[in-house]
């Protein structure tokens, strides 16, 4: 079996991975099995350089705050701000501390500098402003949308009226609301009215699209639509935070996936004439199969952003899952998928899932990692990935 597995593998390179994919791909999802390990974003950087230089890709989006990413995109496109400031304000979830993310923005800026605007690479986040401690308040997104529309459309709501309904930001960001729904204001009368207003503002944005784009620009309109999606998504998420039903946590996880999928869809529509996009996130956010985890002592399952977007794109979506072998004393047992792949001679390998599945005469056991932040690959899902990237040791 080991020899057959070797036949299914190639040393990792961007070309080796894309050789497994259809040329019709519009979105390539590259997953990582855990956060905070530089080996995976470094591998992502190498892949994206290949995609940009040889495959016509013009954008990358990562599992980070979609609004914060506007700061990073302004830097890589126009040199706005300093790199230190952008690393501080342009990422969420602590990803600004990653040296690989810093290297990515530096390379994108250098790539873009001599090129015309339509040839430049774009950087996006496709997560909502949803930190681990809880969601951000809706004020920045809602007021940005209001201000954009107010310059061109008569609105029945003033900024003062919005500010009164929003109240102090601390009411929205109380970390106690994460586990105690009674501490959330997401279903207060003010929050319910704000949800209606956010919906109405988005309808106005759509209804006046031709006028607004002519008066501003397509890019300005796209950013306004980003603020509209984010305001609506945050208000809906806060309403979920205030839910006292037993399904609360699972519903919030699914809502986050829906927000991610909406953002991916909007990115693809914006980039449709320029080229495909690379998405980088945890495997659980990009896989086609139902995702599973334990949270607050209970099993949770949901359809990920990748599963949702793949139903829209069909064979124009591809998913490459990443996994690894040894991590210090955590060495995979030989009967697991990761244990079998550890016999490969390559430090980093790309595997054809179809050929790999054909070599497995019996289903490998699923690895039980020592680190709860690592999600091992489910052997049952091999056939529904387009490529597997294996890193021998991290």
Explain what you see.
With 394 residues, this protein is of the alpha/beta class. It folds into 2 domains: 265 residues, no CATH class; 110 residues. The chain is 45% helix and 16% strand. An 8-stranded mixed beta sheet has the order 1-11-12-10-2-7-3-4, sandwiched between helices. Strand 8 and strand 9 form a beta hairpin. Helix 4 crosses helix 6, helix 7 crosses helix 9 and helix 10 packs across helix 11. It is globular, with a radius of gyration of 22 Å. InterPro entries: Emycin_Estase (IPR007815), Hydrolase/PRTase-associated (IPR052036), UCP036794_erythomycin (IPR014622). This is Erythromycin esterase family protein. GO terms for molecular function: hydrolase activity. Its EC number is 3.1.1.-.
Topology:
Layout: H1 2-7, E1 9-11, H2 14-18, E2 27-32, H3 39-54, E3 59-65, H4 69-78, H5 83-89, H6 99-112, E4 122-127, E5 130-131, E6 134-135, H7 139-150, H8 159-166, H9 189-207, H10 209-215, H11 218-241, H12 248-271, E7 277-282, H13 283-286, E8 291-295, E9 298-302, H14 305-313, E10 317-326, H15 337-341, E11 348-351, H16 353-359, E12 387-393
Parallel strand pairs: 2-7, 2-10, 3-4, 3-7, 10-12
Antiparallel strand pairs: 1-11, 5-6, 8-9, 11-12
Helix pairs in contact: 4-5, 4-6, 7-8, 7-9, 7-11, 9-11, 10-11, 11-12, 12-14
């Amino acid at each position: 079996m080991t020899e057959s597995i070797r036949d299914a593998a190639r040393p990792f390179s961007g070309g080796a991975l894309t050789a497994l994919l259809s040329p019709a791909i519009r979105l390539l999802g590259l997953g990582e099995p855990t956060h905070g390990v530089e080996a995976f974003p470094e591998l992502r950087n190498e892949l994206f350089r290949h995609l940009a230089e040889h495959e016509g890709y013009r954008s990358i989006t990562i599992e980070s705050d979609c609004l914060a990413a506007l700061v990073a995109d302004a830097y890589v496109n126009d040199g706005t701000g300093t790199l230190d400031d952008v690393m501080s304000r342009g990422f969420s979830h602590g990803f600004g501390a990653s040296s690989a993310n810093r290297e990515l923005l530096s390379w994108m800026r250098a790539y873009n500098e001599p090129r015309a605007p339509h040839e430049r690479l774009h950087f996006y986040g496709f997560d909502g402003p949803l930190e681990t401690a809880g969601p951000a308040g809706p004020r920045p997104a809602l007021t940005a949308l209001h201000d954009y529309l107010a310059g061109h459309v008569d609105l029945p709501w003033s900024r003062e009226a919005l500010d009164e309904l929003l109240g102090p930001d601390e009411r929205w960001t109380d970390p106690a609301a994460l586990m105690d729904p009674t501490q959330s204001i997401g279903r207060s009368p003010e929050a319910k009215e704000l949800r209606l207003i956010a919906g109405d503002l988005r309808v106005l944005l759509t209804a006046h699209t031709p006028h607004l784009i002519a008066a501003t620009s397509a890019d300005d309109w796209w950013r306004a639509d980003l603020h509209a999606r984010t305001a609506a998504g945050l208000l809906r998420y806060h309403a979920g935070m205030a839910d006292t039903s037993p399904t609360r946590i699972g519903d919030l996880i699914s809502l986050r996936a829906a927000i991610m999928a909406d953002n991916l869809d909007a990115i693809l529509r914006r980039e449709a004439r320029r080229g495909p996009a690379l998405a980088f996130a945890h495997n659980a956010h990009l896989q086609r199969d139902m995702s599973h985890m334990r949270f607050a002592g209970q099993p949770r399952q949901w359809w990920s952003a990748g599963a949702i977007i793949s139903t829209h794109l069909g064979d124009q979506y591809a998913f490459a899952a990443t996994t690894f072998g040894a991590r210090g004393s955590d060495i995979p047992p030989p009967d697991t998928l990761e244990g079998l792949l550890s016999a490969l001679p390559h430090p980093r390998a790309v595997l054809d899932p179809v050929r790999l599945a054909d070599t497995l005469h019996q289903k490998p056991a699923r690895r039980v990692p020592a680190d709860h932040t690592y999600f091992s690959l489910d052997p049952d899902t091999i056939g529904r990935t387009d490529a597997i990237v294996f890193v021998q040791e991290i």
